[in-house]
């Protein structure tokens, strides 16, 4: 390890998984001293994409063999004691409608899982898919038919009424990967932050919102980045600045004196949660995660707090701040330029975390299809969680083309969390010029392949009729809409029925 005097001073903006993993790998590699800055007053930031009760951890479940291999490596890292048991290997069922584009993705993904030596089970029929769940979920005595279950969404369910039962998965194909699962997401980020400060002596500063870069004119018309400026006016200097600001990145770069980014967009994605009793949670505790590549719907087994989360991996919604929020320069930039910026629980007016009513209806419909009895339950909360999307679904890990010493490590595209244990290693490889050419090409700033390679799941997030739309505040759900009896008959999924990618 280089002596502290020779360490490169690195400023990382953003304490989500990209920032945390990069800092960890810089200290593992040696030769760096890191300061992480985050605008949130407490960390992990309550509204960061990385802060959540759980995230799916696929193990090789990607159609792209390069990313599948990187993903298997991530899971090997997740199993290490340093992640303090935040990873739970429940198994994941990847399901899709027979003959759909999502099915082609699932088949390629299955091949990659097998190629990585994982004993996945291919399930070609409804009963083979249902066999991935404990036997009590398949009992004919508690399950009559999906249509009956869906029709029975009536207001009477009490919290203790949960009877395990499972959808039929008609016309679906799937595979079960027993080595995939889920992570306690927020706790894992907290573990990483603690290691950075306690184990390695790194600096992590909350309440530090960056509003711009400190630059000098460099050679060949390029600017040289010397650090960042906070909203307080304080300048934090470093040899390298890493932008890991997730869905806030477009708004940060839309601010005065910065160059707008056109290849990334912040999209709001819809999540809902149910509270189970300890007894109910015990009944659902041995279940796999299910991820439907046709609808984008996924649902987890219960957390240690007995909460079940479900969500839809979707094209998502954009949001343009109309009024400058005095607490956020990002909102001001969005109001001025029209770039999409996250509307979160920390945005004035967004405290309730309510999602579009259309998405709430879809969530309940899909929940009914997988766990009919849970579909009768009130949701306890919803959340709009923000992806930073690229058109091809690949991340952005590259130097800024016109500014020296400025690196982007962002654009998780809804699937980066699972790489928390190893993505930082690849980011350090990028900095040190040792990143594998295949990854370098995938994650570059300019000139990406808009035709997409066969491994991209980006197109599967919405069918050809589904366009990304702006949030309409008047169309957001209310607390009343979280009640199970709000929609006596499950709403037919309308024109926004989207074929989804994972
Ligand atoms: C609903 C949902 C479900 C998901 N499910 C999965 C899943 O199951 N599996 C999976 O692998 N991935 C999943 N993802 C994707 C994954 O969560 C993201 O790809 C990943 O967490 C992105 O990490 P990040 O570090 O880029 O961003 P974030 O975690 O959002 O972190 C960015 C940080 O930057 C800070 N910041 C922003 N602007 C500034 C500024 N100007 N100054 C200082 N700090 C700033 C923010 O406060 C924040 O803490 C999901 C995402 C969502 C939204």
State the gist of this model.
It is built from 12 helices and 23 strands.
* Low-confidence segments: 140-160, 491-502
> What's the helical proportion of residues?
10-25%
In what order do the strands lie side by side in the largest sheet? Answer: 6-7-5-15-16-17-14-19
The small molecules bound here are: flavin-adenine dinucleotide
Cofactor: FAD
Domain FAD dependent oxidoreductase: 9-428
Family: Belongs to the MSOX/MTOX family.
InterPro entries: FAD-dep_OxRdtase, FAD/NAD-bd_sf, MTOX
Structural commentary:
Its cofactor is FAD. Keywords: FAD, Flavoprotein, Membrane, Oxidoreductase, Transmembrane, Transmembrane helix. The chain is of the alpha/beta class and 502 residues long. It contains twelve helices and 23 strands. Strand 10 and strand 11 form a beta hairpin. It binds flavin-adenine dinucleotide (FAD). Flavin-adenine dinucleotide is lined by residues 13-19, 37-40, 45, 48-50, 55-56, 209-210, 244-248, 252, 269, 271, 311, 385-387, 410, 412, 414-418. Flavin-adenine dinucleotide (FAD) is lined by residues 13-19, 37-40, 45, 48-50, 55-56, 209-210, 244-248, 252, 269, 271, 311, 385-387, 410, 412, 414-418.
